[in-house]
Every structure is written in structure tokens, then in C-alpha cells.
Specification:
This protein has 366 residues and is mainly beta. It has one domain: monomeric porin ompg (Porin). The chain is built from 5 helices and 14 strands. Strands 1-2-3-4-5-6-7-8-9-10-11-12-13-14 form a 14-stranded antiparallel beta barrel. A hairpin with a 2-residue loop joins β6 and β7. α2 runs antiparallel to α3.
Length: 366
């Protein structure tokens, strides 16, 4: 049966399900068989042809285990399944010196912080090729500095997925509410489409498009914008299903809706995500991105203390690099040290930013 589903890759435990007649049961059964063999990257690719949660931990083992709960519930005749998590920890934030910090007086931020995160997801298999899923993810960060605002961020997602013999297509809505300090919350809302083509057990190509709006509170209203974005990605499982690499390219346009001084913006970029299982209890992950933003509005530079007076259009390059380890402690507990480096390069005086963060989190899965 597996040979009928895939032309390549290892042969999982056979099942009696026809992939054309019941793709949900087929993919869940194959994903479970990969999981039982410790091939977590292949298991995730298989499970995600049925459903997809966007708030999973970075560890391949934990991702596969969360999806496997839906597989076990469906095999037992339960169409509704869910998961939850809570994590907490702390770390250190270091803002690095840039010409923007020098212009602001040369005193970059250096603060300890405490983090907390909680959320979960549900999935409902409506029929043998349709799944409805949703997630909720809340993140909070408290800084040990009374002069600095805390971070609060709530993200949600809901989607309808159609499982195909060799892939998945989905339509969904998602949003985010982020605390921006005294003015209030920034709100994002978006509609997206996603089409995944699973070539074989180890390779997937995905195409996605999204239209979203970003609304800032009163004092920051001019930053509000509408955004259209398309993304193409390739995911490959390797090392006998113990590792996974995703490469993606994206591009789009922003339309300023409240007279942003820099005007509209065309952007494009690339990113990667890598995960690996070192042992049954130890995993690692690495991710990064680069994005170029080319604004269209002409501005006049008048701060001659830092640059010559001139007309210019704003241009930004954004970089992000992070990684860490996940150690499973058993009974749903895990420990995760992580590092994150951010860098924004801009031809404006105030658009430059660099920071390095280190933290340690303990997580409980429910």
C-alpha cells in the first residue's frame, strides 16, 4: 500500500486504506508508522497532509507527537482532538550599538527578562478528506526595567484543510494582537491560501498567498498598512527521517493606509528552518531569514548631524538568526535553551537595530 502512495522512501507498516478513497486515514496511519520508527521528519510531512498547527515547538520529536494524538484519536473513532502547552523561563536581552543608538545618546538597553507562553489547538476531521483546525498562542515578556514596557502578544488561526492523495490545500484566517505600550495594541488580520505538493516521503513543495491588514493604535496610526504576500517553499526530510530542512522565498507589497511618510513598500526575502534529532530525547533547531524592503515615498533628510541633507527613498534590510536545543525530560516536560540575533540595516538614521537574546525555557505539554 505504501508503494502505491509513494514512489520513493522507506516502506512504512502496511495499511488497508485506499489513499484515493480515504486520504485522511491513509496519511495519519503512515505518519504514525513513521513516528513509531523514530522518523519524525517524515512523520510530520505525512501528518501535515491532513492538518497543520502553526504554534508547534521547534523540536521535530515534539511536533510529531502532537500530530500523532490526532492520528490515535481518529483511529479510535474520535474525530475531535486537541493539545495544549505552557512554558516559562527567563533570559537576557542585549541591544547592540548602532548609529541609531549613538544618535539616541549611546545608551543601548541591557535587561534581564522573564517569559511565559501558553496555548493549544484543536482539530476536527469532518469527513475522510476535510479537517478543520484552530490554534491559540499567547506570549508574555516582563523586563526587569521599570522604564521599559512589557511585551504581550496573542495569535490565533483557523483553517479548513482538504487532504489529497499527495498533498493538502487549505484556506484560513489568522490574526495577532500585540501590545505597543501606552498607545495600545497593534492588530493584524489576514486571509490565506496554502497548497502543498508532497512529491514523496521526503520532499514537499508549498505555495501560499495571504492578504492581511495591520492596524496601529492612535499615536502610531500612520504605520498602518495593507499587505499582500506570496511564498514558495521546499521541505526535505533526510538522515533517514531524523532531520528536516525548509527553504523559502517570499515577496509582496505594502500599501500605506494612513499617509506613512515612507509611502508604499515592495519587499522580498528568503528564510530557512532546520531541525534534527540527535537522540530520542535531544533535538536541535536553527532558523534564519533575510528580507529587503524598498519604500516608494520620497523623503527629505534634514538631520545634518548624521548625514548630508538630501532627498532619498528609505531602504531596509532585515536579518534574523536563531537556534537552540530541546531536551525531553519525560511525561510531557522538556527544557529548551535558545539564542536569537536580530539586525536591521537602514539608510535612515533611526531605522538601524541590532540585538542578541539568550533564554532558557521549561515546557509542559498537555
Amino acid at each position: 500500500m505504501a508503494d502505491a502512495v509513494y514512489a520513493a522512501g522507506p516502506t512504512p507498516a502496511p495499511t488497508a486504506v485506499n489513499p484515493e478513497a480515504d486520504p485522511v486515514a491513509t496519511h495519519l496511519a503512515l505518519g504514525q508508522s513513521y513516528l513509531e520508527r523514530g522518523e519524525h521528519a517524515r512523520a510530520v510531512l505525512e501528518f501535515e497532509q491532513v492538518l497543520r498547527f502553526d504554534n508547534l515547538p521547534p523540536d521535530l520529536h515534539e511536533q510529531a507527537a502532537i500530530y500523532a494524538r490526532s492520528a490515535r484519536d481518529y483511529a479510535a473513532g474520535r474525530r475531535l482532538s486537541g493539545f495544549g502547552y505552557a512554558e516559562t523561563g527567563g533570559g537576557y536581552y542585549r541591544e547592540n550599538v548602532t548609529r541609531s543608538t549613538n544618535a539616541a545618546g549611546g545608551n543601548p538597553a541591557r535587561d534581564w527578562f522573564w517569559r511565559a507562553r501558553a496555548g493549544g489547538g484543536v482539530s476536527y476531521i469532518a469527513r475522510n478528506d476535510i479537517t478543520i483546525d484552530g490554534t491559540l498562542d499567547y506570549r508574555f515578556r516582563y523586563y526587569d526595567n521599570p522604564e521599559r514596557r512589557d511585551d504581550s502578544d496573542l495569535r490565533w488561526n483557523a483553517a479548513v484543510n482538504q487532504s489529497l492523495p499527495h498533498g493538502r490545500q487549505a484556506i484560513g484566517v489568522r490574526g495577532r494582537a500585540s501590545y505597543r505600550g501606552q498607545p495600545g495594541y497593534r492588530n493584524d488580520y489576514g486571509l490565506y491560501l496554502d497548497r502543498a505538493f508532497d512529491i514523496n516521503a521526503d520532499n514537499r513543495i508549498s505555495l501560499a498567498g495571504e492578504w492581511r491588514t495591520r492596524q496601529y493604535p492612535t499615536d502610531l496610526r500612520e504605520r498602518s498598512r495593507d499587505i499582500a504576500e506570496v511564498t514558495a517553499s521546499w521541505t526535505r526530510a533526510f538522515l533517514d527521517g531524523r532531520a528536516s530542512l525548509t527553504l523559502a522565498v517570499n515577496g509582496g507589497r505594502e500599501w500605506a493606509t494612513h499617509n506613512r511618510p515612507d509611502g508604499d513598500n515592495n519587499f522580498f526575502g528568503t528564510e530557512f528552518n532546520f531541525g534534527i534529532d540527535f537522540t530520542p530525547s535531544l533535538g536541535g533547531f536553527l532558523f534564519g531569514l533575510w528580507e529587503h524592503n524598498a519604500y516608494l515615498g520620497d523623503r527629505t533628510l534634514t538631520d545634518a548631524d548624521f548625514e548630508p541633507v538630501a532627498f532619498y527613498t528609505r531602504s531596509d534590510d532585515i536579518y534574523e538568526l536563531g537556534g537552540g536545543l530541546t531536551y525531553g525530560l519525560g511525561r510531557g516536560w522538556s527544557l529548551r535553551p535558545e539564542v536569537l540575533y536580530l539586525r536591521d540595516e537602514s539608510n535612515t538614521v533611526w531605522g538601524n537595530y541590532r540585538s542578541t537574546e539568550l533564554w532558557l525555557m521549561i515546557r509542559k505539554a498537555f
